[in-house]
């Protein structure tokens, strides 16, 4: 593929140089083509606008929250995550919070991947519309659930 593209580009450069070098018409006889310049400037701009409006609508609609049944606040802190189930209140009248630390290397079992498992996992109900509010308390973090195709950068 690379050789084919190199050959095609080389042929185009050779053809352009050869054609323009042997052209008897001098540049001073060519008129300015304002109409053509307007067309090749405006046509791509219009095509981009036609593509941009539906894209922005889809981007806006994909980020819209439709009355979630549950809200989970995920806060990234250095070396651990804190999850807050803000819709649930415990016996003390406080929201339910879980802190999730990386699994220590000495507690990993055979076959477990280092830095990909935690001591406490966040639990989500099945078939429920959940809103995640992801933020960071200190540095940039990456909240990711690979099995759901979810990745959010928390800043």
UniProtKB/TrEMBL annotation:
Bilayer topology term: Multi-pass membrane protein
Record domain Cytochrome oxidase subunit II transmembrane region profile: where: 1-66
Cofactor: Cu cation
Reaction(s) the record says it catalyses: 4 Fe(II)-[cytochrome c] + O2 + 8 H(+)(in) = 4 Fe(III)-[cytochrome c] + 2 H2O + 4 H(+)(out)
Bound cofactor: record note: Binds a copper A center.
Transferase among keywords: no
Residue spans crossing the bilayer: 6-27, 39-61
Keyword entries, A-Z: Copper, Electron transport, Membrane, Metal-binding, Mitochondrion, Mitochondrion inner membrane, Respiratory chain, Translocase, Transmembrane, Transmembrane helix, Transport
GO cellular component: mitochondrial inner membrane
GO molecular function: copper ion binding; cytochrome-c oxidase activity
Residue span, Cytochrome oxidase subunit II copper A binding domain: 67-155
Functional description taken from the UniProt entry: Component of the cytochrome c oxidase, the last enzyme in the mitochondrial electron transport chain which drives oxidative phosphorylation. The respiratory chain contains 3 multisubunit complexes succinate dehydrogenase (complex II, CII), ubiquinol-cytochrome c oxidoreductase (cytochrome b-c1 complex, complex III, CIII) and cytochrome c oxidase (complex IV, CIV), that cooperate to transfer electrons derived from NADH and succinate to molecular oxygen, creating an electrochemical gradient over the inner membrane that drives transmembrane transport and the ATP synthase.
Protein name, UniProt field: Cytochrome c oxidase subunit 2
